Amino acid sequence: MKYIEWFGTNFIGLFEAGAEVFKSFMTGIIPLLIVLLTFTNAIIALIGADKVENWVIKRSNNIFFRYTIMPILAVLLLTNPMCYTFGRFLKEEHKPAFYDATVSFVHPVTGIFPYANAGELFVFLGIADGVAKAGYNQGSLAARYFIAGIIVIFIRGIVTERITKFLTSRKANNKARGV
Asked: What is the pTM of this model?
């Protein structure tokens, strides 16, 4: 009987702890996420969606823009998972590399812009909590993640673009040879 009572008390305690975390999100991070997302959508509405789209299309021929600025804008403006739709502005041969760069940026952005990928926020907050307990600044961690993320997405975009070109030409050569 003692074990049943212990199980009942501790089992419900698990859900009580979950409810406390949920309450803290409702008064903390969720209002912040809503305000940041509203702000981003307001900026796009003020500029005009057509103007934003035309500006992106014109600049997508630049490799630096394509694998740094474009993924950053996509993640910040459209958030995860809609950010991948920014690839529609690109030529077919650039789409795999853009996707690779963008999917690689949805975690590093979380520390500074948590609304962009709320699913990853729990991972960042766990790491940030450890950093804070070690006596370091969480803002510094977020900034370093962001900068490292930009470097990584640029490298990944270039490498994936070259791999895509190699595989595409290889497939074309095999087709030409009848293989």
From this structure: 0.69
Note whether 146 and 112 are within 8 A (CB).
yes
Do 76 and 113 meet the contact criterion of CB atoms below 8 Å apart?
yes
Amino acid residing at 33: L
Q: With the C-alpha atoms ordered 94, 101, 76, 68, is the resulting torsion angle positive or negative?
A: negative
Q: Which of 96, 128, 123, 85 is nearest to 107 (CA)?
A: 123
User: Crossing angle, helix 49-59 and helix 29-47, to 10 degrees?
Assistant: 80
Average pLDDT of 24-39? Answer: 76
Q: How far apart are CA 93 and CA 176, in angstroms?
A: 19
Residue type, 42: A
DSSP characters over 17-81: HHHHHHHHHHHTHHHHHHHHHHHHHHHHHHH-HHHHHHHHHHHTTSHHIIIIIHHHHHHHHH-TT
Q: What is the pLDDT of residues 140-149, one digit of tens each?
A: 999 999 999 9
Taking the C-alpha atoms of residue 102 and residue 27, their distance in angstroms, rounded to an integer, is 30
Q: Please, are residues 123 and 95 in contact by the beta-carbon 8 Å criterion?
A: no
Best CA proximity match to 69, nearest among 6, 153, 142:
153
